[in-house]
Amino acid sequence: MSTLIRLRKGLNIRLAGKAEKILLPEVAVTRFGVRFADFPGLVARLEVQEGSPVKAGSVLFHDKAFPEIKFVSPVSGVVREIVRGDKRILLEVVIDQEGTEKVDFGAADPLRLTREEVRSRLLSSGMWPVLRQRPYHIVARPDSVPKAIFISAFDTAPLAPDLDFVMANTHGNYLQTGINVLSRLTDGKIHVSHDAEGSRVAGLNNLQNAEFHRFTGPHPAGNVGVQIHHIDPVAKGEVVWTVDIQDVVALGRLFTTGFYDRERIIALAGSGVIHRKYHRIKPGASVSAILKANFQEGKQRVISGNVLTGKRITPDGSLGFYDNMLTVVPEGDTSEFFGWATPGLNKFSYWRTFLSKLLPGKEYDLNTNLHGGRRAFVVTGHYENVLPMDIYPVHLLKAIMAGDIELMENLGIYEVAEEDFALCEFIDPSKTEIQEIIRSGINMMIKEMN
Amino acid sequence: MNFLLKRMKKIEPLFEKGGRFEKLHSVYDGFATFLFVPDKVTTRGAHIRDHMDMKRTMTVVILALMPALLFGSYNIGLQHTRAFGIVDWTLIQMFWFGFLKLLPLIIVSYMVGLGIEFVAAQIRGHEINEGYLVTGMLIPLIMPIDVPLWMLAVSVAFAVIIGKEIFGGTGMNILNPALTARAFLFFSYPGWMTGDKVWIEGLMSGGGLDGFSGETPLALAKMDGFDQMPSAMEMFIGTIPGSAGETSTAAILIGAFILLLTGVGSWRIMLSMTLGALGMGLLLNATGGNEYTQMPAYYHLIMGGFAFGTVFMATDPVSAAQTNTGKYIYGALAGILVVIIRVFNPAYPEGTMLAILLMNVFAPLIDHYVVNANIRRRLKRVQRA
User: Fold this and answer.
1) Do B18 and B100 belong together in one domain?
2) Minimum distance, in Å, between the CA of residue B292 and any CA atom of chain A
3) Which 3 state secondary structure label does DSSP give B266?
4) Smallest CA–CA separation between A213 and chain B, in Å?
5) What ipTM, to 2 d.p.?
6) Which of B50, B171, B264 sits opposite A350 (nearest CB)?
7) Are A305 and A325 contacting, i.e. CB atoms less than 8 angstroms apart?
8) Contacting residues of B for A9, CB less than 8 Å apart
9) Mean pLDDT throughout B99-126?
10) Do residue B212 and residue B352 come from a single domain?
11) HSE-up of A178 (CA within 13 Å, CB side)?
C-alpha cells in the first residue's frame, strides 16, 4: 500500500447541493464553444472563419508563441460565430453541431512509439492542451520535458464529483493506455494521488507505470499543486506536468481509436438546481440542455467548475475545457440588515465568530454575496491555516503587488496556481481578490522569463 | 427594514459622483454599510465568500473590551470614594459616576478619530476602515481619567494622522495607533500622565483627603513602597488606581477568553508575552538584588498595563509580527522588555507601552528573518535535487 500523507491545513466548505450518484446518458447538444479564456498565458491565432465547416478534431486556432499548440473542434459542424471582446481579443469560437465527421489521427500503441512520435500526435490532434505545467499552471510548453507527471484521482473542492464514481463508469483500458502515453513523455515518474481509502475501482488500482500516493485532509488536499508540493516540489528551473484524470482517459481513447473525443462525466451540483446528477458531456458543449427546466426559483448563477475556482457562464454557455462539474448557486444581490452583527447560526464560516461553528456536519446554502467590503490586509495567521504548503501566502501576495520578481521567486511563485489560494480568498475578511493577484504574479513571471 | 433600505437607496444618488453631497460619499457609505451588509456580489475569483468581514472582526474586539470598560467605570467611582472619603455610595452609584466620567473621553475619541477616517476615506476614494472602532475604544481605556478633552483630541489626531493615515491607513501602519496616542501624551504632557494624582478622578483639580496618595502599585514598587502595596488579589480584581481599562486583570481575562475563543486574537502572542514577562521576573528573583527584583514574578502580570497591553495591544495584527514563528519571538521579547523597563529604568514606572511600541518597530525585522528561513528551505531543495 502506498504511503499516506496527512494534511491538517485546509477547509471543507460544507455546501448544500451535492450531486446524487446517478449517471444520466448524454443528451443531444447542438451548440458548442471553445473558450479562449480557459488557456491563460497564450495568444490565439485563428485558423477558421465564421461559416467554416469543421470536423471533430479540426483546428480552430493555435498559439502565437508555439504554433504547434493547436486547439480543435470537439464536434463536426459549422463555425457559427467568433466572439471577440475588447481590443478584438478572442473570447470564444462557437460551433453549430452537424453530422458526425471526425478527423482520424490513427490508432497506435504508445509504448511502441518514440517520445517525438507521441509528442507530434498529441500536438497535431489538439490533445496537447490537456497537459498543463507547473510552474505557472498553463498549457505545457512543447519544448519541455517534465521531471514528473502528476495526476490527482480525487477532488476535494466544494460539491466536487466523486472521481471514483466517475472512473467506475469509464472505460478502464483507456486509462492504462493514457498512462502509457504519458510515460513516453517523461523520464521521471507518473504520480497518481488518491484519498485516504485509495480507489475502489480496479482499473485505477492496478495501473502499471505509475506510482501511487494517498492523501488525507480537508480541501485543497485534492489539488494537484498541493500534492506536488508534498511529493516532489517544483524548484526554480524545474518543470512538472499535470493532467486531469479524465483527460488521461481521453489520451488513451485517442491512441486506441484514433479520434479526438474528450467526452467526460461531470457532476451537476449546487443549491440552485432541482435535479443534481452526473452527466456525460463533451467539454465545450452548451449546458442549456442539462439545465433546462432545472433551476430553482430566483436568480441563479451558473458556474463551469466549482464555486471556488470556476468561471461564470450564461445558462446556455459552454462547459469549460478543463472542468469536471457544473455548479449553480443562488445570486446574493440582496442587502442584509445588520448582517455583520447576527449570531450566525445559519452562516457557514471558517471563523469561530459564528454560532454555526457549534453545528458540525450541517450543510449550508451559500450565495454569491461578497459579505463585506474591500479592505487592506489586517488579520494575520489565518491564511496559512487553509494553505497546506510551506509558503507564506500574504508575503507572496505582497511581493506580487510590489512587482518584486526575485522575492516572488523566492517565496514560491513557481509552485502555486490561483486554485491553491482559493480558500485564502474565501476566508479573507478583507475581501481581497487573491486568485486574481496570484494570476497576475504568474503572468509577470512569464513575461519576465521570456 | 425594507422601508429603511428603500429610503437609503433613494438618497444614494445624492452621494454619488456628481450628486449634491458628493463630498460626503464616504460618510454615506459608512453608515449604509453599517446598517446593511451591501448587495454586492462576487465578480471575480471565488464565487462564494465567507460571511466574516472587517466589521465583525472589529466588533468582536469591542465586545471583548466590554468587561474591562464596565469594571473600569465602577473602579473610577470606587477610587473616587476612597480618595474623597465618601462612604455611602452604592455599587451602582460608583459605576454611574465612573461611566459618566469615561463617556466624554469615548465620545471625543470617536468623534475626532472617525472624523479623520471619514475624510481620509473620501480623499482616497476608499470605503471607511473599521480599524478605528477598536482604536477609538482603546484610547479612553488607557488614558488617565482626568485628562483634558482637548489633549485627548490632539493625541487622537496625532495618532490617526501621523501614526496611521500617512502610512496608508488601517493595515499599513507600523505602530499601534492607540499606543501612539498614549505615547504622544506621555511625552508631551508628562504632568498629566504620571504622578500620584492623575489616576484618580478629582485629584488633579485639588481636593481629596489630606495625606491621601493615589499611586499605582507600579509607582509604589518603584519607590520601595512595598509596605503600602495592595494585595495580589486586589491587583488581580482591579480595585487599584490606574487607567480605566488596565486595572482589572480579571475583566481583561474575560476579554482574552472572547478573543481566543473566536480566534480573533493571537494566542501565540498572548502566551509568549506572558511567559516572557514571567521568565524575566523569575530570572530577577534568582539573581537577587533589591526589593523590587525580589518581588514575586507573577506580580508583573497583574500590575499596571501588562494584562491590557498583552491582550489588546500587542495582539494588534497589523503592528505585530505576522508570521506564526515571528509572533512567538515578538511576544516573548515584548514580555521581557516590559519587566526590564519597569525594574531597571529610573524614570518610568510602567514599561508595557514602550515595550510594545518598540517591538512594533522590530516586528517587520523579525518577520524578515522568519521569511528568509522559509526562502532558504526552498533553495536547499534545489541543491539536494
Assistant:
1) no
2) 37
3) coil
4) 20
5) 0.92
6) B50
7) yes
8) none
9) 93
10) yes
11) 29
Q: How many CB pairs under 8 A join A and B?
A: 210
Q: Which residues, 6 or more positions from A196, have their beta carbon under 8 angstroms from its beta carbon?
A: A4, A214, A215, A216
Does one domain contain both B31 and B65?
Answer: no
The full length of chain A comes to: 450
Chain A 125-184, residues with CB within 8 Å of chain B CB atoms: 158
| A379: nearest CA partner in chain B | B317
Q: How confident is the model at residue B35 (pLDDT cuts 50, 70, 90)?
A: confident
Binding-face residues of B in 192-251 toward A, CB within 8 A: none
Q: Tens digit of pLDDT for each residue in A56-107? A: 999 999 999 999 999 999 999 999 999 999 988 999 999 999 999 999 999 9
Rounded to two decimals, what is the model's pTM?
Answer: 0.93
Q: What is the domain extent for residue B11?
A: 2-35
DSSP state of A386: G
Domain assignment of residue B148, yes or no:
yes
Distance from CA of B128 to the nearest CA of A (A): 9
The verdict on residue B379 lying in a domain is: no
- Which of the four CATH numbers 3.10.20.600, 3.20.20.190, 3.40.50.300, 3.40.50.1010 does domain A265-341 have? 3.10.20.600
Does B180 lie in the same domain as B86? yes
Provide the residue ranges of all domains of chain A, joining segments of one domain with +.
4-257, 265-341, 370-449
B135 has a chain A CB within 8 A of its CB: no
Is there a single domain that holds both residue B311 and residue B167? yes
Model confidence at A410: pLDDT above 80: yes
Percent of chain A topping pLDDT 70: 100
Q: Quick one: residue B350, left, alpha or beta (phi over 0 = left, psi -120 to 50 = alpha)? A: beta
Distance (Å, whole) CA B255 – CA B242: 18
Chain B partners within 8 Å of A358 (Cβ):
none
Residue B378 lies in a domain: no
pLDDT confidence of residue B227: 84
